[in-house]
UniProtKB/TrEMBL annotation:
Keyword list, A-Z: Cell membrane, Membrane, Transmembrane, Transmembrane helix, Transport
Function: Part of the ABC transporter complex hrt involved in hemin import. Responsible for the translocation of the substrate across the membrane.
Record lineage: Bacteria, Bacillati, Bacillota, Clostridia, Eubacteriales
This protein's name: Putative hemin transport system permease protein HrtB
Domain of life: Bacteria
């Protein structure tokens, strides 16, 4: 029976199973790193795009010294509690250039026996809100009633199911779409419920009782078209001078995050380049050594009548098959990790992180699989060329 190049290549892989397995693992590691790196880059970029497109507020007014807290709550969902007097809202609405001023109340649940999990609770005014409602993935009847909540995309719980914090049960009435921001780990309630939870918060921590009816945490401000945010920021500073009020520009927050994101992406690109360069060099070295060690085997095939083209095809089929298997394993593992641990990545990076959609993940899978598959044959070309320049049959006779 006459064996063609492909069949001989498969037989060689089976006979050298340990060597083949090591090369498959090496290729799998390469494609895994490339897949996850591509996933991280796209997720960070999507997060920044999401933040820029649907941030909503042009200016956020918070108590002085709490600008870092609002950044943590909005960008990463870090639970925080802070208070501001409600009279601030009405004063801001009188400032020329302000289109909408919507108050919010931030309360952090506690990692105590009364709570299912520590999360950020935000009370919002559905009549004036322009920040939360655009993210609603499922239709919900607004305003929310007593004991009703909207939940971020990462919050565990199905529609119309109950969750518990501050010793009280709430029913889920709506869910937000994936934002890539802190909203994914946030629960939203109406203002009456938020103030009731604020009382429970103070009661549990034995804090001084406040005037809850006049209590908010921040004011989300949307400006009229063509109005300069910096000008309004200065007006707010002047209006509330000495009152402990701080106007934060959303753009400055986005610029800060954008810089951090670009730095992170730059490092990921460098990592990809280094890994690919290293693996390409390693594969080139491995295949060069392997082909050199197998000269006697190839010389025997030449004496038996195999042409140089036939030998080249055998080697390329071997390498192609090995890289095909390694790329499939690495790409599949990368896909599984990105799906199962996407939320963990989002929490770990502490910056806007929005995973690509299924179609994009499929495109990444195909691209990484294809690149990983052709990398092996490309890295072996120099060794094959060198082998073809030698007359292996003559070399074998001389050695004998």
């Amino acid at each position: 029976m006459r064996l063609d190049s492909k069949q001989i290549a498969f037989k060689n892989i089976q006979n050298k199973s340990v060597r083949s397995a090591l090369l498959i693992i090496l290729t799998a590691i390469l494609t895994l790193v490339l897949f996850l790196s591509s996933f991280l880059i796209l997720s960070l970029r999507n997060g920044m795009s999401s933040l820029a497109n649907r941030m909503g507020a042009d200016i956020i007014v918070v108590p002085e010294g709490y600008d870092s807290k609002i950044r943590g709550a909005i960008l990463r969902g870090e639970p925080n509690t802070f208070f501001l007097d409600k009279s601030v809202v009405e004063k801001i609405r009188t400032i020329d250039g302000v289109e909408i001023a919507s108050p919010q109340l931030f309360i952090a649940t506690l990692s105590a026996g009364c709570c299912s999990f520590p999360i950020q609770v935000i009370g919002f005014d559905s009549d004036t809100d322009f920040v939360v409602k655009p993210w609603l993935e499922t239709q919900a009847k607004l305003p929310l009633g007593k004991g009703e909540i909207l939940v971020g995309n990462n919050i565990v719980g199905d529609m119309h199911k109950h969750v518990k914090f501050f010793n009280q049960e709430f029913i889920i009435r709506g869910r937000l779409a994936k934002t890539g921001m802190g909203f994914d780990n946030t629960v939203f309630v109406n203002f009456d419920e938020a103030r009731r939870l604020a009382k429970e918060y103070e009661k549990i921590l034995k804090l001084e009782d406040k005037d809850h009816e006049n209590m908010i945490s921040c004011v989300m401000i949307k400006l009229k078209k063509s109005v300069d945010p910096v000008e309004i920021q200065n007006k707010i500073r002047s209006e509330f001078k000495g009152e402990g009020v701080y106007p934060l520009l959303s753009q400055s927050m986005m610029n800060e995050v954008s810089t951090s994101t670009q730095d992170m992406i730059k490092y990921v690109y460098i990592l990809i380049a280094l890994v690919w360069l290293l693996v390409f060099l390693v594969l080139t070295l491995v295949y060069s050594i392997t082909i050199k060690e197998r000269k006697r085997e190839f010389a025997t095939l030449r004496i038996l009548g195999a042409s140089k083209k036939h030998l080249r095809n055998i080697i390329l089929w071997e390498i192609f098959t090995i890289n095909l298997a390694g790329s499939a394993c690495g790409s599949a593992l990368g896909l599984v990790i990105s799906i199962l641990f996407g939320t963990w990545f989002s929490l770990s990076f502490k910056m806007p992180f929005l995973a690509p959609k299924v179609l994009t993940l499929a495109i990444i899978f195909i691209a990484v699989f294809a690149i990983g598959t052709v990398m092996g044959p490309l890295s072996s070309l120099s060794a094959i060329k060198k082998m073809n320049e030698e007359e292996l049959g003559l070399l074998l006779r001389q050695n004998d």
